[in-house]
Amino acid sequence: MNATIWALMLSAISISFIHTATGPDHYLPFIVLSKSKKWSRSRTILLTIACGFGHVLSSLVIGAIGVFLGWQLNQFAWFQDIRGNISGWALLIFGIAYLIYGLIQAARNKPHKHFDVLGDDVYVYEHNHTEMVMPQSRIKVTPFVLFMIFVMGPSEPLTPLLFYSGLNRSVTEILALVLPFTLTTVATMLGMVLLGRYGYSTLFNTEKLERYMGVISGAVVTICGVGMVFLGW
Questions:
Q1: Contact assessment for residue 126 and residue 113, using Cβ atoms and an 8 Å cutoff
Q2: Where are the transmembrane segments (predicted)?
Q3: What is the pLDDT of residue 203?
Q4: In which residue ranges of the chain is pLDDT below 70?
Q5: Residue 171: how many CA atoms within 13 Å on its side-chain side?
Q6: CA 112, CA 149: separation in Å to the nearest integer?
């Protein structure tokens, strides 16, 4: 297994873990619903896994666009001579752009999800820390609503990595991204849910880190791009 494969795998695992662990919305609703509705452990685990795969699927659908575009570029003869340089630089440029975007979003206090418990029901809403939330803006959380929230919330930083692999027409690289990303996402969600369900707290304040999720993910892609362009990964 060459350095490129290892770099892509580590990037996919890092992005997946960061995206999942720093977002309380990836596990808090399962913990709250499980306790308030007195769900069994097996039901909690099954719903968490189902939502995890739904979340991964939406990320891979967007990522597949990157693979398709990269793959199609290889149909042009003129592109074959410059493919190596273009793919690495494209990854680096996207990483830097996403890093800057993450910094801007963190500075602007991007709206984020919160979950409220009222009696035996759980409600979800988005707000900035400086905003008041009116009751009518809340949505009652059910298993179906929870599943749809995850399906509609992809992880964007996976796209440039898949675009890079598409440019190289490498099925091995694509699998090295998809499989670790999928397993890490589902395993992290499940681990955080089970820890919370049985009363254990995490080792860090995920709500504070959530604001900088884009910054950290952009930094991971940038580091990967630097390695591809300047270090010969």
A1: yes
A2: 45-71, 86-104, 144-163, 175-200, 212-231
A3: 47
A4: 1, 74-85, 109-120, 125-137, 200-210
A5: 0
A6: 13
Neighbours of 151 (CB within 10 A): 17
Residue carrying the six token digits 């990854």: 91
Q: Determine the Cα–Cα distance for residues 218 and 93; give it in Å rounded to an integer.
A: 10
Residues 6+ apart with CB under 8 A from 178: 12, 60, 63, 162
- The tens digit of pLDDT for each residue in 119-169 reads 667 777 665 655 555 555 677 778 888 888 788 877 777 888 887 787 777
Show the tokens assigned to 208.
């504070």
Q: What is the dihedral of CA 22, 176, 151, 149, to 10 degrees?
A: -10
**Phi, psi dihedrals of residue 91, rounded to the nearest 5°:** -65, -45
Among 168, 124, 119, 166, residue whose Cα is nearest residue 144: 124
Q: Identify which of 10, 26, 12 has the alpha carbon closest to the alpha carbon of residue 210.
A: 26
Torsion of CA 200, 202, 203, 206, to 10 degrees: -160
Q: Specify the pLDDT at position 180.
A: 94
User: Letter for the amino acid at 9?
Assistant: M
- Whole-angstrom Cα distance, residue 165 to residue 111? 32
Token pair listed for 99: 């890093």
CB 157 within 8 A of CB 98: yes
Name the helix (H) or strand (E) containing 122: strand 121-127
Q: What pLDDT does residue 145 have?
A: 81
For the chain, domain boundaries: 3-231
